[in-house]
Each structure stands twice: as structure tokens, then as C-alpha cells.
């Protein structure tokens, strides 16, 4: 396993999650949507043994060869790419059942992003050759993978259009609710989310600056929608925040959400 200075060498983990739990998480991945349970179990035989990463371990770096596909079993992965000015820009935060690096299945071109663990994380990896073998043996599954990739491309295009049209306040409201929905752990009538993001990170996700994000968070606090304590944000009025986001009230059963 590596530090933040180099790529991770995948090896067998002695502390991985229970197999049933892994099977459930793998089944929830977009690339296996529509697959029969037997097909998912067969695909799991092609993954390398689970690997445990520490915070800041690097899975691959922008420019590395694209030779494998990865699935998050536990923890979080951040995807970032370097701008023309040499600054790292956060493009996505991934959690359990999320897949990344899947373009390597069809195109061995260099990676376009850097993938880094932001917490203790467990991944599964399937190399390109094994993935091709699996798809040849089950041609209908190749269609499922292509469908999943097409859906991701569609979401990317929709997100670009959204970033061009929505105000920063709306984008921020959506991002807070999305993070809460994606990483929330319900506790009574609250949902606690540990995403490990700074205001600068959130600004990158919504296409704005840290300063602007800070001002809008202050406005949300004045409206009574959130409270801010250190690096934690507590959503105290999810319904109004949801209306700002242009979506139905979220979450319907919770009153506070800690981000």
C-alpha cells in the first residue's frame, strides 16, 4: 500500500467486510444493474481480493495507464484533475457501490483524473483483461455496461447544463442535500454525514469559489436552514433547503442533517 506519493499496490486484505455485505454492495453498482444474482457472483470471482486503503492513499494518478476498473466497498474516494494552471480540481466524491475507472475497459488511454482515498477505504479491482473475458462469456452483460456508461454520460451532460443555468445558491443547496443523501448515516431524527470536504472542495463541486460558498452558507444560516460548527454543517430545515434546490422536501423523515 502506498502513501500519498505513489500508486497503490493491490494486495489481499485481512480485514475486509463480510462476503454477503460485499455481494450486496457489488450488486448495487450501476454496471451490474439488471444483472441476475448468479451473474454478479460470477463477476465477483474476477475481482482481485479486497484492499484496504488509508486516508490519502492514491489509487491512480492522472496520466497513469488505464488498466483496471474499481468498485468502492467502503469509505470514500475523491476524483480530481489538474487544471492548466496546475491546481487540483475536485470533480467527484464516491462512496460504496460507486464504480470508477470503467472507461479503461474500452479505452486503455491514460487516466484523466487522480483517485485518492479520503478515509479508510476498501476497494475491489478488476483488470481490463478479466473484464473483457467476462463480457465475451456473457455478451448481454456488455450491453448492461454500455448502458451504465451512457447513463453516466447523460448525467454529466445534464450537470454541465445545470451548472450553466442554476445560481450558485441553488447549486450549493443541491450539493448539500446530495452529500447528505449519498453519505448520510441516520441517527434518530438526524442524519450525520462525514464527507471530509472543505469549503474549497464544495466550491469546486458547484463551480464557485470558497469565498462565495462561505457567503452563501452564512445566508443559509441566517435563514435558519443550517447551522455551522467548525467543519460540520447541520441542516435544520431540509424542506426549505429542498425548495431552494428545486426538488421535493428532503429528507422527509429527518429534521436535521449533519454534514
TrEMBL record:
One GO CC annotation: cytosol
Keyword Metal-binding among record annotations: no
GO molecular function, one term: DNA-binding transcription factor activity
Span of domain HTH crp-type: 166-239
Keywords attached to this entry: DNA-binding, Receptor, Transcription, Transcription regulation
InterPro entries given in the database record: cNMP-bd_dom (IPR000595), cNMP-bd_dom_sf (IPR018490), Env_Response_Regulators (IPR050397), HTH_CRP (IPR012318), RmlC-like_jellyroll (IPR014710), WH-like_DNA-bd_sf (IPR036388), WH_DNA-bd_sf (IPR036390)
Domain of life: Bacteria
Domain spans labelled Cyclic nucleotide-binding: 31-152
Name assigned to this protein: cAMP receptor protein
Gene from which the chain derives: crp_4
Amino acid at each position: 500500500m502506498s502513501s500519498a506519493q505513489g500508486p497503490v499496490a493491490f494486495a489481499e486484505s485481512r480485514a475486509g467486510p463480510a462476503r454477503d455485505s460485499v455481494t450486496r454492495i457489488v450488486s448495487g453498482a450501476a454496471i451490474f444493474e439488471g444483472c441476475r444474482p448468479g451473474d454478479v457472483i460470477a463477476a465477483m470471482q474476477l475481482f482481485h481480493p479486497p484492499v484496504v486503503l488509508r486516508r490519502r492513499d492514491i489509487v491512480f494518478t492522472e496520466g497513469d495507464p488505464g488498466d483496471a476498473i474499481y468498485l468502492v466497498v467502503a469509505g470514500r474516494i475523491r476524483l480530481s484533475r489538474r487544471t492548466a494552471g496546475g491546481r487540483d480540481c475536485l470533480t467527484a466524491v464516491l462512496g460504496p457501490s460507486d464504480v470508477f475507472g470503467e472507461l479503461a475497459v474500452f479505452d486503455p488511454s491514460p487516466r484523466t483524473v487522480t483517485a485518492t482515498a479520503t478515509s479508510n477505504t476498501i476497494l475491489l479491482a478488476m483488470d481490463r483483461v478479466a473484464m473483457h473475458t467476462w463480457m465475451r462469456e456473457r455478451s448481454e452483460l456488455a450491453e448492461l455496461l454500455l448502458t451504465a456508461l451512457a447513463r453516466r454520460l447523460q448525467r454529466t451532460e445534464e450537470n454541465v447544463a445545470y451548472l450553466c443555468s442554476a445560481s450558485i445558491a441553488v447549486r450549493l443547496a443541491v450539493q448539500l442535500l446530495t452529500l447528505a443523501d449519498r453519505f448520510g448515516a441516520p441517527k434518530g431524527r438526524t442524519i450525520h454525514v462525514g464527507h471530509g470536504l472543505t469549503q474549497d472542495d464544495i466550491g469546486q463541486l458547484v463551480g464557485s469559489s470558497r469565498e462565495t460558498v462561505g457567503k452563501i452558507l452564512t445566508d443559509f444560516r441566517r435563514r435558519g436552514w443550517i447551522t455551522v460548527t467548525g467543519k460540520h454543517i447541520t441542516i435544520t430545515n431540509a424542506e426549505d433547503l429542498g425548495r431552494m434546490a428545486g426538488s421535493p422536501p428532503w429528507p422527509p423523515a429527518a429534521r436535521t442533517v449533519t454534514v
